[in-house]
Amino acid sequence: MTRRLAIALMVAVALAGCGAGSNELAAEPYEGPKGSPRDFNPDRADSVFGEGGFSVNNLNSIFGGGDETERKGAIPVNKYLWQASLDTLSFLPLASTDPFTGVIATDWGTTPEAAGERFKVTAYLLNTELSASSLKVAVFRERMSEAGAWIPAEVNPDTARRLEDAILTRARQLRLAADGTPTSG
After folding, report:
1. Phi, psi angle pair for 45, to nearest 5°
2. Alpha-carbon 63 to chain mean position
3. Statement to judge: residues 94 and 170 lie in one domain
4. Cα–Cα 20 to 30 A to 157, which of 38, 130, 135, 142?
5. Residue 174: count of CB within 10 angstroms of its CB
6. What order of strands is seen across the sheet that includes strand 150-153?
7. Total structural domains within the chain
8. What pLDDT digit, counting tens, does each position of 127-180 carry?
């Protein structure tokens, strides 16, 4: 009983420290921007990571627009590989996507062809080139045990390569479509 009382007391003290009703932590009134408009540098004003970092002002160049000087804060992945990876892995539920690091991770999913098994895939987009060296896919597999628990299982090494090939093929189709070249398939 004293343990519950001690926990309740700690929670009460922690909540009291939040300052409900206290004027000590009141926000200062907003005074507007400091300096004059001519001191404003749009390349640094809204940079997320400081000078030379990603800037909201260059969002239009994230996926390769503009020249090299305009792309210094761009996301370092190929836009066709990114979209092709999302398209190809759409048969599995997405767990997370991060274009800043070039990682697409799926959650566990099943396929009708493999009852009693589930798969998880992580695609790593390594640079801005549309090439096989820009893509790495990792596949994870689990099987249902007789006891009803998921246990790790070996993955055929060709599975990751076949997914990479499918992503690269789709990325090339997307690039050709963007260039106005008719595609088949």
Report:
1. -60, -40
2. 15
3. yes
4. 130
5. 20
6. 94-98, 103-106, 117-125, 135-144, 150-153
7. 2
8. 899 999 999 999 999 999 999 999 999 999 899 999 999 999 999 999 999 987
Residue pointed to by tokens 């599975």? 159
Collect all residues with Cβ–Cβ distance below 8 Å to 132 and sequence separation of at least 6. Answer: 164, 168
Assess contact for 75 and 58: CB atoms under 8 A: no
In a domain, residue 19? The reply is no
Q: Which long-range contacts does 90-97 make (Cβ < 8 Å, 24+ apart)?
A: 92/119, 92/120, 92/121, 95/120
- In this structure, the number of other CB atoms found within 10 A of the CB of residue 133 comes to 8
- What is the pLDDT, as a whole number, of residue 6? 55
Can you tell me whether residue 93 is helix, strand or coil? coil
Do residue 159 and residue 104 come from a single domain?
A: yes
Tell me, what's the pLDDT at 61? 45
Write out the two tokens for 17.
């420290």
**What is the span of the domain harbouring residue 65?**
39-74
Please say if the pLDDT value at position 120 is more than 90.
yes
How many CB atoms lie under 10 A from the CB of residue 96?
A: 10
> Is 19 within 8 Å of 9 (Cβ atoms)?
no
Same domain for 115 and 62?
A: no
Would you tell me how many other CB atoms lie within 10 Å of the CB of residue 171? Answer: 25
